């Protein structure tokens, strides 16, 4: 079982990562648009990993459940790409 201290640290990390998005887009003299988009995607992936791993307790599950989730994510991405291609 994960302690309250760990959850508090994850929460603070999520707040800091969310602040990163603000920094990327409001300091446009430092970051170009493509750098802000790339940084935001990396921050979003990191936040998603922390939320799924700790708050949804996937890190304590058997690896088969994690592989099932990754397969589902891959299929959603394929469907999104197919839908985007069909719209063009």
UniProtKB/TrEMBL annotation:
<dbReference type="Pfam" id="PF03626">
    <property type="entry name" value="COX4_pro"/>
</dbReference>
<keyword id="KW-0472">Membrane</keyword>
<feature type="transmembrane region" description="Helical">
    <location>
        <begin position="33"/>
        <end position="55"/>
    </location>
</feature>
<dbReference type="InterPro" id="IPR005171">
    <property type="entry name" value="Cyt_c_oxidase_su4_prok"/>
</dbReference>
<keyword id="KW-0812">Transmembrane</keyword>
<dbReference type="GO" id="GO:0005886">
    <property type="term" value="C:plasma membrane"/>
</dbReference>
<feature type="transmembrane region" description="Helical">
    <location>
        <begin position="7"/>
        <end position="27"/>
    </location>
</feature>
<keyword id="KW-1133">Transmembrane helix</keyword>
<protein>
    <submittedName>
        <fullName>Cytochrome C oxidase subunit IV family protein</fullName>
    </submittedName>
</protein>
<keyword id="KW-1003">Cell membrane</keyword>
<feature type="transmembrane region" description="Helical">
    <location>
        <begin position="67"/>
        <end position="87"/>
    </location>
</feature>
């Amino acid at each position: 079982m994960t302690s309250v201290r760990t959850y508090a640290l994850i929460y603070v990390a999520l707040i800091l990562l969310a602040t990163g998005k603000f920094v990327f887009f409001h300091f446009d003299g430092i970051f170009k648009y493509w750098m802000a988009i790339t940084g935001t995607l990396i921050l979003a992936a990191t936040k998603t990993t922390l939320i799924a791993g700790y708050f949804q307790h996937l890190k304590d599950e058997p690896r088969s459940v994690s592989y099932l989730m990754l397969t589902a994510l891959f299929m959603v991405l394929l469907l999104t790409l197919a839908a985007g291609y069909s719209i063009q």
